Amino acid sequence: MTDTTKLDTRQVILDAGQAVVQARGYNALSFRELAKTVGIKSASIHYHFPTKGDLGAALAKRYTDGAAKAFEHFLTIAPDAAGRMGLYTGVFRAALVNDNRMCLVGIMAAEKADMPAEVMVEVERFIAVNVAWLTQVLGLTGPEADQKALAVLSAVNGAQLLARGGGDVAIYDRTIAAYRTAGLFP
């Protein structure tokens, strides 16, 4: 197997694993089922990710790295906080439009009791990346800045959860609009 093939197989496994977790949660992630989906043997998944915790950590790391990159891009393409928040909330909305999925790390955080430590490290990093970006974009300062940013992240995740449960992205749209009207963010 060439290095390119190894990388391609790893990416296919990560893509399939992300789809499972976003749709059904971390506990639904099974190497056997993932192998069937990808069209390889379960042992091949173990070759790339020796444990489910390794796979979960890799999924959360890739998701966080992608989010951080997107957030930096938002800073360059949107001139103000309202535009940047529109892009930010749009990411969460896009997951709903994509087969009624959840934020990968949000659903992992909800399953914290069953999560290996290596996965929780990446979940906490995702939260920290979001809080830092929101603090910057919203111009939050003072000793409670991080708590305010965490409240915004929680509110957006909550809106996504309600919309997913209701099977209707319009619930998300109405909730985000209500947050704006209430002044939670621009």
Automatic annotation (TrEMBL):
PROSITE patterns for this protein: HTH_TETR_2 (PS50977)
Q: Which residues form a coiled coil?
A: none
Q: Does the keyword Transcription apply?
A: yes
HTH tetR-type domain location: 7-67
Name assigned to this protein = TetR/AcrR family transcriptional repressor of nem operon
Record organism: Caulobacter rhizosphaerae
Stored InterPro entries: Homeodomain-like_sf (IPR009057), HTH_TetR (IPR001647), Tet_transcr_reg_TetR-rel_C_sf (IPR036271)
Q: Record's Gene3D superfamilies?
A: Tetracycline Repressor, domain 2
> What are the record keywords, sorted?
DNA-binding, Transcription, Transcription regulation
Q: Which residues bind DNA?
A: 30-49
Q: Does the keyword Transcription regulation apply?
A: yes
Under SUPFAM superfamilies, the record lists: Homeodomain-like, Tetracyclin repressor-like, C-terminal domain
